[in-house]
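Subject: complex prediction, re-run

Hi both,

The earlier run crashed halfway through, so I resubmitted it with identical inputs.
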Amino acid sequence: MIHQLVYYSRNTVSDSDRAMLTNMREILSVSQRNNSRDGITGFLIFDKTFFIQILEGERAQVTETYNRIARDSRHSTATIINVRDVPGRLFPNWTMGGAMRTPEVQEVYLRHGFGGALQPNRLKSDQVVSLALDLQAFEVSRRQEQKLAS
Ligand SMILES: Cc1cc2nc3c(=O)[nH]c(=O)nc-3n(C[C@H](O)[C@H](O)[C@H](O)COP(=O)(O)O)c2cc1C
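This time it finished cleanly. Structure:
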């Protein structure tokens, strides 16, 4: 069994798109380094107001990682949506994938019924997982297109 934790938090970093993108890149880069060491995989959704993250791995590592993340001053009021054991990883190839909400990915949000701002306190973890899987698929096909074009 794999332990899965889904939480949301509020972004505390400046609201300029550039600052937020830099911040997101820094978070993903540190996450990828630490998570590959700790056997954690998952996905980070960032809609500019909120972060919503899925962490999956061994129970002790997931708990330790979440406790470390929750203390980070780049966000506040981390709130767990759901913790559960699942039969397998949903993001096996992603030590931490992530997508900031940009006009480019808006179509993915729309497909999931999120035209406006996310209200994470109303989200169920399955909705989060299904949005994250679609954002991941979008990112994979975008990278493939970039590769073909280069
Ligand atoms: C929204 C958010 C998500 C994060 N996700 C992860 C993560 O998945 N793994 C991780 O190691 N750090 C994550 N971090 C960063 C941690 O809070 C912390 O800065 C980092 O783990 C410290 O790593 P270091 O001790 O190697 O410098 C995240 C931070 C934020 C704000």
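The pocket of flavin mononucleotide is lined by residues 27, 30-31, 34-35, 44, 51, 53, 65, 68-69, 72, 74-75, 96 (CB under 6 Å).

- K.
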